[in-house]
Amino acid sequence: MSSSLSGFAPFVFLLLVIGGTARPLYPLPGKGDHGTKQPLQTFRPYNVAHRGSNGELPEETREAYLRAIEEGADFIETDILSSKDGVLICFHDVTLDNTTDIAKYKEFTDRKRTYEVEGVNITGFFVVDFTLKELKSLRVNQRYCFRDQQFNGKFQIITFEEFITIALDAPRVVGIYPEIKNPVLINQHSYWEITSDTYLDYIKQYVVGIGPWKDTIVPEVNNYVMTPSDLVARAHAHNLQVHPYTYRNENKFLHFNFSQDPYKEYDYWINKMGIDGLFTDFTGSLHNFQEWTTPNRQDDKTASELLHKIAVLASAYE
């Protein structure tokens, strides 16, 4: 997700596709034996792996998602774009320039284009101009220079189908959290419109929650968090969950109120703000915090209620 308005979106958990006893909506490759698995925990806020465990490994790669699952993610999140030949892939940017090694491929030099994206002219190597085979020939790099660079150039771009299969093959139930990039419908409205009670009341008919940028819930001034808005309370009043983004360990992303300590930030958002899930680049850190403060336990009643709500929402589109 990004810090723009387009990052705010209603969401529907895609859990029925990968539940322990649920049948996929369409055939998918995988190990085949998905049997009865440990169910999704529902007694504490969800640990949502933002583009996988991308604080450690290049984002939206198989390896980043596997690491996130290993570290305790409840959901794995991805961004969805289409290749030139119509295959859905997991990739954040509309261009390949920032997080792949495309610059070293001389055969692609003439593919650079300039397109208008959300009213702005952008020049680069656009995902939509490359076939899946060509995209698969590239390797993904770490987005931020201050993170570990040793895995640059080692991992492939994956398809959305491969992403689903990673969740299906997990040793426990892991939900998927896809985001469609550049949603035109949402972008047609102002932030105040899409966070109004009227809008929240409308979307609760077909979604289970919202995913706002955390600074729109609690504004910041000079890197200090200020008085919170009432968005979380209002969303909960409409029976909607709230999953803000993005939680990162590095000092440059932490407000001064938290003394450069990500655990203090987690504590503030979970225990004071009462949110229902967190998008994090560091799945392991959030999991360790939650294990320390809220050890794992079984809560079949809550899990059953959540699955029932998802089933009701999904049945409306069958």
UniProtKB/TrEMBL annotation:
It is an enzyme of class 3 (hydrolase). It holds the Pfam family GDPD. It catalyses: a sn-glycero-3-phosphodiester + H2O = an alcohol + sn-glycerol 3-phosphate + H(+). GO terms for biological process: glycerol metabolic process; lipid metabolic process. Keywords: Glycerol metabolism, Hydrolase, Signal. InterPro entries: GP_PDE_dom (IPR030395), PLC-like_Pdiesterase_TIM-brl (IPR017946). This is glycerophosphodiester phosphodiesterase.
